[in-house]
Amino acid sequence: MPVKFYLDNRPGKSGDAPIRVSIALFGDRFITSTGYAINPDKWNAEKMRVKQGATNAKKINYNTINAKLGRIASYFEAIEGAPTRPENVDIKALFAAEFGRPNGPASTGQPEFLTFWDYYAMFCRERGKQNDWTKATYQKFDALKNHLQDFNPRTGFDTFTEYGLLQFVDFCRNDLDMKNSTIGKQLGYLKWFLNWATAKGYNTRTDYQAFSPKLKQAENKVVFLEWSELMKVYSYQVPEEGVTVKLINAAGEEYEKKVEHAGTLEKVRDVFCFCAFTSLRYSDAFNLKKSDVRDGYISVTSIKTQDLLNIELTDRAKAILDKYADLETFGKKALPVLSNQRMNEYLKDLMELCEINTPVTQTYFKGQERIEVTRPKYECIGTHTARRTFICNALMLGIPPQVVMKWTGHNDYKAMKPYIDIADSVKAKEMDKFNKL
Predict the structure, then answer these.
(1) Tens of pLDDT, residues 351-400
(2) Which one of 149, 274, 423, 432 has the fewest beta carbons within 10 angstroms of its own beta carbon?
(3) Cα dihedral angle (52, 54, 56, 60), rounded to 10 degrees?
(4) Segments making up each domain of the chain, as ranges
């Protein structure tokens, strides 16, 4: 970090010690006062911030002081992290121009050498660290950056007037061929960045805050394997490499498929089924270590939510773990998990071989156009299908939602509602069989 805060060792008559800042950039160092003081007992030296709930002798609370310290740190971190090193950096002059009035608000002026993309990179670094972003989250913001640059190579904060935002929506729909649901996500990521930039004082245009275009969206269909389908996959013996197998599609037509990567398909089958027996997300299965396996259960800290989950193991789940327990090929890992992209590719081949081919119709909107696409189920299956499979089958077995949530780590019923609705509809359909007796 180029910026460090510390207390002066000479407290004033009030008992408050001045908060000083040391700024180091490109070999130069500048030390000055932040304009605030605090009692040493109210200072967190490790975090370099005022402790929560504290106020100083002038009745200035911790929020006000920490916000100023945060702006100072962010400002100079952005300069240090700029893609090109600015020339003739005068730290003292920069500090005076941006924070010259110690007890007043920071100016909204931006250094000439910091661009919109410098602030974007700064946002990703800061929020990425604070929220412990996964690789997938960084990739989402990289994709948004590429879309914005394609939309307007000279993108800046002034781009996002109401008209500019409407143009971006049209660009996503017409040039990038995005679904309405995908456009909604892109706007959500963009607003996240703009809210951060506005709070920091880097952005003064707030049209985006009231911008809420109507994007028709269809309810997502939850694709999962019914228990009979899961058992079919679990017990499936992958044919030898190069063997040509005869398959029957949903229409009853016979066709042939050559088996490729047989050894990999077997591992993909085992990992998928293990997740379907335990509710683990792909990221948690990938991160699962042999040391996480206890006597009859696994204990994992979720990569996504940081929740500690203790999940009991069924006999089938234990059998899969036992199969790989003595293999040293995977080091400390409990399972031979491939990358998410490769898993998704091989899963579709595996499910096709297992003839999981019931037609699935998915609906989405592009603008006002309603589009329906029907595909065999195996084309709709990915790594997350295993978790959905666990939840749906658990609920259909009559296991209470609050118990299922203990395994899955869901914190509220809102996320569980789509699965509960499926279980209820299936139960109603099964009950109707009594009427046909």
Answers:
(1) 999 999 999 988 888 888 888 889 999 999 999 999 999 999 998 888 88
(2) 432
(3) 70
(4) 3-99, 121-210, 227-436
